[in-house]
Amino acid sequence: PDLVLLKSYMKDPLGDTLEQLGIPVVYLEFETPEQYERDLATLGKLFGDANHAEKLWGYYQEILERAADATEGLTDAQRPRVLLLQYTEKGGEVAFKVPPASWIQTQMVTLAGGIPVWTEAAQGGGWATVNLEQIAAWDADQIYIINYFGSAVEVVKQLQTDTQWSVLRAVRDGYLIPFASD
Description:
By secondary structure, the protein is an alpha/beta fold. The chain is 43% helix and 20% strand. The protein contains 8 helices and 8 strands; from the N terminus they run βαβααββαββαβαααβ. It has helices spanning 11-20, 33-46, 50-71, 104-111, 132-138, 152-160, 163-166, 169-172; strands at 4-7, 25-28, 81-90, 93-98, 115-116, 128-130, 142-146, 176-178. Strands 3, 4, 5, 6, 7 and 8 form a 6-stranded mixed β-sheet that branches. A hairpin with a 2-residue loop joins strand 3 and strand 4. Helix 2 runs antiparallel to helix 3 (50-71). The chain is globular and about 55 Å long.
């Protein structure tokens, strides 16, 4: 290839090898609004269309401004306590993970007016596995399920019928919600 685009966390396992083979690699993040602006500008330069990159950044800024306007003035008491979980199932074993406090998923919850309940448990550099006891202890008002390798809608349907999940406030109140993947 003329160029490979990778997330920067892939530098060690893959990027260094590609670079040693003489293949140019560009590392992107897309995990914070600041990184979105930087990474869109980088892609605009790479593809020779800086104007399109600027338009995309303008669109993103409009969304950020709408979210800020919609949540302006909310007190903590008015903000829902939100839990965002990634569902994974490898080899028949189910796991739930929370994103790092610094990643875009956490920032999206905050920008949308929610209080992410998991940030204390997710200070590392990758998704952290949590168990049902921890999920119950957080007692979130809303729970969002991401499934990057399947249907979040189907996972939510399964969890809504699970007796262990049915005792959670978010599930009882109808706020167990599938979240769009990428």
